[in-house]
Amino acid sequence: MGSKRHLGKLSPSKAREMIRTNEWTGPTAGISNGYTQANLVVVTKDLAYDLLLFCQRNPRPCPLLDVTEVGKPVPLMTAPGSDLRTDLPRYRIWKDGFLVDEPLDMTDYWRDDMVAFLLGCSFTFEGALLEAGIPVRHIEEGRNVPMYITNMECRRAGSLHGPMVVSMRPVPHSMVSRAVMITGRFPSVHGSPVHIGDPSVIGIREINDPDFGDRVTLKEGEVPVFWACGVTPQAALMKTRPPFAITHSPGHMFITDKRDLDYAIF
Amino acid sequence: MGSKRHLGKLSPSKAREMIRTNEWTGPTAGISNGYTQANLVVVTKDLAYDLLLFCQRNPRPCPLLDVTEVGKPVPLMTAPGSDLRTDLPRYRIWKDGFLVDEPLDMTDYWRDDMVAFLLGCSFTFEGALLEAGIPVRHIEEGRNVPMYITNMECRRAGSLHGPMVVSMRPVPHSMVSRAVMITGRFPSVHGSPVHIGDPSVIGIREINDPDFGDRVTLKEGEVPVFWACGVTPQAALMKTRPPFAITHSPGHMFITDKRDLDYAIF
What we know:
Two copies of one chain form a homodimer. Helix content of chain A is about 20%, strand content about 25%. Chain A is built from seven helices and eleven strands. In chain A, strands 1, 2, 3, 4, 5, 10 and 11 form a seven-stranded antiparallel beta sheet that branches. In chain A, strands 6-7-9-8 form a four-stranded antiparallel beta sheet. In chain A, strand 3 and strand 4 form a beta hairpin. The longest helix of chain A has 13 residues. Chain A is globular. The model of chain A has no long low-confidence stretch (mean pLDDT about 95).
């Protein structure tokens, strides 16, 4: 299996093979560094139009990287040689909005009427922040990024609606502009911040009490900076309590063949 | 009705009113300067998913600005107070892929099962090029921009497929980088060029014989620069010969409430 360092250098296809054979069943952060990881949301065809439109109308929280053909579990744009039923370490199976299983493989759950959506995730821009010398606190502290439900409503699409969820990273005052410019180069993976500073402006009452993930230390001289978060479409979807849906398990992402820099603006 | 100069200063809602009442029935170039104009494609709901997916998979030629609710002719994101059935100067009505009418108003053709798509158009980035001192030849020569069918296949989505169509503008050698950087700021309206230089590389045999639009003069020391073109999705759609579709008449665009700069990267 090798060290974390070894994992970082694996090609995406080798990493997916290790995951497919259940040689690796853990979170994917740090695997195949430089390659883009993605969130997975699988819905039935009758919900796919609403989800596609929701993503089109809310591109900051829902940066769509790939949509499969109906019934085909292969993401042709981002990893044509892969199989989404087996190539993520862990899945969540949802029935009527309730979590009913968390298997290592979803082959038994896949159906002919399903469409898989891959959405960009913040791992991509966090790599760019780190390379630019901007600290990423939750990585330093070995925690999950703190996420908050805001008072900013997404644009509705059919049955899908809900508030925007944001993630927060503390940034030293002097580096805020730099953080904006760097993440702004990656519009396909949330882009520049949606808010900088006073959390109450976007409806966050207590910065130390995130709605999802873990709290992190906000130091003297640091500004809380908020980016749109990929949890948003999942939250909107679950509100509608669809009869059947599949997602990745948090942190257990899909590793694409695309490089992070493929999503920098061209 | 007033002069062209007067038209340039009209607010989008005033301009649309003038168009709605058939006080203006001509092309929209030069009206409400600084506001974004859009291409219109209307299809029935059963084709809307494929068209939405085609746009998602081919964002350079198909920059989607707005999609209406089924049966509702109001583009909520780009001009909530407007009506797409009346607010464009001229429409094209298509039956089985054939042009059957070119009315000033499409109210009689609109149906409850229709979805309207608004796509970005190159007027937006041409304004930015002109402001940056880069000549736009077809405007100088009072012609339509030359467009070419390329050998670059779009990514298929369901029934929709076809080659990418590009538009060409000659740019002086010394200004090519500048033209790339400036249009690259507008990814929602085709973005940076898809090709620079030798037309044969993308399957264009004769630069003086465009597939659509007019030929323009290519001067000594100028490079042909090619951008993805909004004719692409219409061409793909018409290949499938849908029983019923509606588009704008060429050059007779929809004027949104959005400013061109709203589509510059943030």
